[in-house]
Amino acid sequence: MTQREQHWENIYQSRDHREVGWYQVSPEISLRLLDQVGISPEQSVIEIGCGASGLVDRLIERGFRKITLVDLSQKALSIVRDRLGAHGDIPDYRADDVTRLVLGQSFDIWHDRAVFHFLTDEEDQQKYVAVLKQHLAPEGHAIIGTFSLNGPKSCSGLPVERYDKEKMQGVLGEDLVVLDSLTDVHVTPAGGEQEYNYFIISWRAGAKLRHYP
Ligand SMILES: C[S@@+](CC[C@H](N)C(=O)[O-])C[C@H]1O[C@@H](n2cnc3c(N)ncnc32)[C@H](O)[C@@H]1O
User: Fold this and answer.
1) What residues in the chain have per-residue pLDDT under 70?
2) What is d(CA 136, CA 84) in angstroms, rounded to the nearest whole number?
3) pLDDT at 18
4) Do residues 177 and 169 lie in contact, with contact meaning Cβ atoms separated by under 8 Å?
5) What DSSP line would sit under 105-136, residue for residue?
6) Measured between alpha carbons, how far is 17 from 94 in angstroms, rounded to an integer?
7) DSSP-based three-state secondary structure for 44
8) CB distance 116 to ligand 1 below 6 Å
9) Does 12 map to a domain?
10) Cβ 49 under 6 angstroms from ligand 1
11) Does residue 21 lie within any of the structural domains?
């Protein structure tokens, strides 16, 4: 087990997942942004670092069936599977590190809330961008939520990299473009406030596509 895996597995093993700072029953901003990019239930969604939050539940309620959940923590994935009950077999569960993800297929939607910002090392950030490009369909959109420049400097005992639109564009490079961004204040289960920026990302017109067929 890597240190990163150990850290997150330990969080979900030792804490009530409904009390961690990032927990959301219903991710309203993510759903709003998914509506903004115009996704429909026949499309495929990959949720990076899903944790035990409720986006997958809401997607299943809306009729989505092509859902892949990725998280470093086996425990987080099993919490989700158990909670989904009769729908537990719908998602494809992958216990893996996003920076080394190889699924061999591309997705219409890549969703990541509060995962990319833990990659504080430039090499890891570029590995993430390469993996994103491999898994993003030609007409696909990525929605990435990070702490904003006014957000916390750390989360769950780990340092984070905070982003505004320009900084995110700089990390993504030339092939991907930040189409839009939105600032939101998340109220943690303990009542604290955390400012996030969400970015809607697509391939830039004329970009050299690198996705799986
Ligand atoms: C702050 S939580 C956010 C969870 C969820 N996205 C949400 O918004 O509630 C970060 C999640 O990403 C997972 N994670 C952290 N680093 C990861 C990585 N490199 N690859 C895959 N998952 C990762 C953690 O296990 C944790 O569940």
Assistant:
1) none
2) 26
3) 86
4) yes
5) --EEEEEEESSGGG--SHHHHHHHHHHHHHHE
6) 19
7) strand
8) no
9) yes
10) yes
11) no
- Residue 70: other Cβ atoms inside 10 A: 22
**Is residue 82 helix, strand or coil?**
helix
Write out the residue range of the structural domain in which residue 162 sits.
3-16+27-203
Instruction: Report yes or no on whether pTM surpasses 0.85.
Output: yes
Nearest CA to ligand 1 atom 8: 113
Q: Is residue 208 part of a domain?
A: no
**What are the structure tokens assigned to 197, written together?**
């920026």
pLDDT (tens digit per residue) in 63-114 = 999 999 999 999 999 999 999 999 999 999 999 999 999 999 999 999 999 9
Mutate to test the pocket of ligand 1, among 6, 7, 8 (most ligand atoms within 8 A of CB): 8
Q: What is the CATH number of the domain that holds 75?
A: 3.40.50.150
**Ligand 1 pocket member 108 (CB < 6 A):** no
Provide the pLDDT for residue 179. 97
Q: How many domains does the chain have?
A: 1
Cα of 101 from ligand 1 centre, angstroms: 14
Q: What angle in degrees, to the nearest 10, is found between the helix axes of 3-14 and 74-84?
A: 40
Cα 207 to middle of ligand 1, angstroms = 29
Which pair of structure tokens corresponds to residue 48? Answer: 């990076």
- pLDDT value at position 24? 83
Q: Given the structure tokens 């092509």, which residue do they identify? A: 66
Residue 54 lies in a domain: yes
Rg (the chain; Cα; Å) = 16
pLDDT at 164: 98
